[in-house]
Amino acid sequence: MGEDAHSRQGSRRLDHLNWPAVQAAAQTPGSTVVWPFGAVEQHGPHLPLGTDALFAEQILDQVLAALPPQAPIWRLPVQSLGFSPEHLGFPGSLSLPAEHLLGSIEAIGSQLAAAGFQRLVLFNGHGGQIALLQVAARQLRAAHPSLGVLPCFLWSGPEGLGGLIPEPEYQQGLHAGQAETSLMLQLQPELVGPERPVDGLQADQPPPGWSLEGAVPNAWLTQDLSTSGVIGDARQASGALGKALQERLVQGWSNLFTGLLNSDWPPRKA
After folding, report:
1. pLDDT for position 9
2. Contact between residue 184 and residue 191 where contact means Cβ atoms under 8 Å apart
3. SS3 letters for the chain?
4. Mean pLDDT of the 124-146 span
5. pLDDT tens string 211-254
6. Given this model, what pLDDT does residue 209 score?
7. Cα(138)–Cα(269) distance, rounded to whole angstroms?
8. What gap in Å lies between CA 54 and CA 50, rounded to an integer?
9. Is 160:248 a contact under the CB 8 Å cutoff?
10. Which domains does the chain have, with CATH numbers?
11. Which burial class, exposed, middle or buried, applies to 259 when counting CB atoms under 10 A from its CB (0-12, 13-18, 19+)?
12. pLDDT of residue 8
């Protein structure tokens, strides 16, 4: 009883703690839980289905390892299955219904709030569910105002990523292109196939003034754009670029989490 929440094997994994340690963790000022999200969806002929989950989990673990040992932050197991209807035209892609994920986040978030945790970060590696997690976060915060809820996207937040990836790939390489192929070559090169596809960039584009993503986006399906499943150019992918992306992501998210942990967010009513 009364065991320090980090003392069991020095773990940041909430599911590796016993219940007294979790109780102590929740009562720590600024207690924060991070829930990594990915997907099981095609990533072209050269990357694994679990690319997004692998990135979210491995980058998050490196970020947590870089934080001070007594920082009040823990992580949940990765949510590997996500919302990926745009990729269902390719074998192996799996997608949960939107309402299933919304309900799961509401249920787990409610239980974390009841336990006394102050923040929940949804750390997402799949671009196709950014908006869905934002909706889930807003609904959860409205239902539990004492719980700060922060929906984050792995590739948005850290500064300087654009300087590592040339245009037009930085803006148009939406899926399994140079950036994702390079990061996988750095993190788990044995999972990368020999192909370096370029696809989806010369496909029919939306009408003038509209875009695939951005200010005036479309609900595109991958098969609208690509026969290989790739939307981008993987030809210049390299482990060296992957290492630079890894370092920039880990440093950027370490800075962001440090700022969050040193803050009083969310505001408390008097």
Report:
1. 40
2. yes
3. CCCCCCCCCCCCEHHHCCHHHHHHHHHCCCCEEEEEECCECCECECECCCHHHHHHHHHHHHHHHHCCCCCCEEECCCECCCCCHHHCCCCCCECCCHHHHHHHHHHHHHHHHHHCCCEEEEEECCHHHHHHHHHHHHHHHHHCCCCEEEEEECCCCCCCCCCCCCCCHHHHCCECCHHHHHHHHHHCHHHCCCCCCEECCCCCCCCCCCCCCCCCCCCCCHHHHCCCCCEEECCCCCHHHHHHHHHHHHHHHHHHHHHHHCCCCCCCCC
4. 97
5. 788 788 889 899 999 999 999 999 999 999 999 999 999 999 99
6. 81
7. 18
8. 6
9. yes
10. 30-254 (3.40.50.10310)
11. exposed
12. 44
Nearest to 95 by CA among 120, 141, 126, 65: 126
Query: 10 Å Cβ neighbour count for 115?
Result: 16
Name 47's bridge partners: 43
What pLDDT digit, counting tens, does each position of 188-212 carry?
999 999 999 999 987 677 888 887 8
d(CA 252, CA 250): 6
